[in-house]
Write a structure and sequence with these properties.
It holds the Pfam family Hydrolase_like. This protein is α/β, with parallel strands linked by helices and 339 residues long. It contains twelve helices and 17 strands. The strands form three sheets. The chain has an eight-stranded mixed sheet with strand order 1-2-17-16-15-3-4-5. Strands 6, 7, 8, 9, 10, 11 and 14 form a seven-stranded mixed sheet that branches. It has a two-stranded antiparallel ribbon with strand order 12-13. A hairpin with a 7-residue loop joins strand 9 and strand 10 (179-181). Helix 8 packs across helix 9 (275-285).
Length: 339
């Protein structure tokens, strides 16, 4: 594939700006990926909040994604979804994105973890978003963490571990009476079923597996939903043991680096919209990062990824305030993922 070399022209048209905070390192505001892409050989990229909002792609995202591939860059899609990696092209293809990529998900790494520990992780009490009453039949779904695994969904008295795969129901079996609804995804409120789930696990000193550490996610109509990472954090605060899979865990990033046969981290950049997961993970791994301001932090930064040019503009003062608060230093910042 041929490289697309228009970085210099675009740079001249839209010069980068630098923040000059009193105590915080500099982040560089760029208008498009092409300004800096030639500096890297490998790109790691998030999906939710960067490529799409769960339903439709962001403006310019499909074009930018496909141009990245045409430019000959090697890249790995790095997602905190609880689904396995084979679900990524199934999700992105119909939106118009090329499916010519490798992918690593929290669900994939969690699946491998369970596969290596079959005996000690054969019985699970589960929180999930699957509302079709077929929790225990997931072993036949290739996208599921449980695919090919003989993991039984059981009550707390028989469980060897807890898993928070989703946030809409607590499951102790596939029977209707053992499937208890929650509204945590939409409200962030911990109901009685969730309290029993967490307290029961704590009393029995059960580890909780969290394949998606995200606390919030931005969805269609800029609506935020509460994710499993918030529940895992609560369990941890209660004194429970949590095993996280996905960003910001350094191990998750290193799986991507191995897939891409990386020998020089200075030639790697990660693109993501969460300071706490994407930018933190990139920092811990020792690779550069591009922060997408119009994703999960859009409200804090007053950036509208679907708005006018002014609404889309990154406001340096708001950006610096947020960076000072989080003590994180993205190498670059752009309003949305665009060429």
């Amino acid at each position: 594939m041929t490289k697309v070399g228009i970085a210099a022209a675009l740079h001249a048209l839209a010069p980068t700006r630098r923040l000059t905070p009193s105590h915080h390192p500099v982040t560089q505001i760029i208008q498009g990926l092409s300004e800096v892409l030639d500096r890297y050989d490998v790109v790691l990229i998030d999906q939710y909040g960067v490529l799409h909002n769960g339903t439709v792609p962001y403006i310019g995202a499909v074009d930018c994604f496909n141009r990245m591939i045409q430019a000959g860059k090697q890249f790995v899609l790095l997602s905190n979804t609880a689904h396995r990696s084979c679900g990524l092209p199934i999700k992105l293809g119909p939106m118009g994105f090329s499916t010519d990529f490798q992918g690593v998900t929290g669900g994939e790494v969690c699946h491998d973890y369970l596969l290596e520990r079959r005996d000690a992780h054969a019985r699970c009490s589960l929180m999930t978003s699957d509302l079709d009453g077929k929790v225990t039949k997931r072993a036949s779904n290739p996208e599921s963490i449980f695919h090919g695994l003989d993991v039984e969904i059981v009550g707390l008295d028989k469980a060897q571990f807890l898993m928070v795969e989703g946030t809409q129901q607590v499951c102790y079996s596939d029977h209707v009476a053992d499937v208890l609804p929650t509204d945590y995804r939409h409200t962030g409120e911990v109901n009685d079923a969730m309290k029993e789930f967490l307290r029961g696990g704590l009393e029995r000193k059960l580890p909780l597996l969290c394949p998606n550490p995200d606390v919030l996610a931005v969805m269609a109509n800029d609506r935020f939903v509460h994710m499993g990472g918030g529940i895992a954090k609560l369990y941890e605060e209660m004194g429970g043991e949590v095993v996280y899979f996905g960003k910001p865990m350094k191990e998750h990033f290193e799986v991507c680096l191995r897939l891409a046969n990386v020998t020089d981290k200075s030639k790697v950049v990660h693109i993501g919209d969460s300071l706490h997961h994407d930018i933190q993970g990139a920092k811990d791994t020792g690779v550069d990062s591009i922060f997408i301001a119009g994703g999960v932090h859009a409200k804090e930064l007053a950036v509208n990824a679907w708005g006018t040019e002014e609404e889309l503009r990154v406001k340096p003062d708001l950006l610096q305030t947020l960076l000072n608060k989080t003590h994180l230093d993205p190498t670059y910042t752009m309003s949305r993922y665009t060429w």
